[in-house]
Design a protein that fits this description.
The chain is mainly α and about 90 residues long. It has one domain. Helices cover about 70% and strands about 0% of the residues. Helix 1 crosses helix 2. It is elongated, with a radius of gyration of 21 Å. It starts with 15 loop residues before the first helix and ends with a helix. The model has no long low-confidence stretch (mean pLDDT about 90).
Length: about 90
């Protein structure tokens, strides 16, 4: 699998007014280049979609019939959360 930060190129056609806008935004937003500005926009859009998906799942859970979780279900949930937290802790320790 490739490096998650490996950059590739993409050509996007824009009307001249949008092209001018994108060229002006780095100075206004603290980005060093128009490419960085576009990457930040895409990243923010990805995060918004992830948040929407999470909210949909929470609503689905709230709309489903309530029931008690078994100790086996709690154990599985703890394990899943611990496995997700371990890589994060290792990255912070570096």
């Amino acid at each position: 699998m490739g490096d998650k930060h490996e950059l590739t190129s993409m050509t996007v056609s824009l009307p001249s007014t949008q092209k001018d806008y994108v060229r002006e935004q780095p100075a206004a937003t603290g980005c060093s280049t128009p490419s960085e500005y576009i990457r930040r926009l895409i990243h923010a859009d990805q995060k918004a979609h992830e948040q929407e998906a999470l909210e949909r799942k929470v609503l689905e859970g709230l709309d489903s019939p309530a029931r008690e979780m078994t100790s086996k279900e709690w154990s599985k949930l703890r394990q899943r959360l611990k496995s997700k937290l371990k890589p994060t802790k290792r990255r912070k320790a570096r």
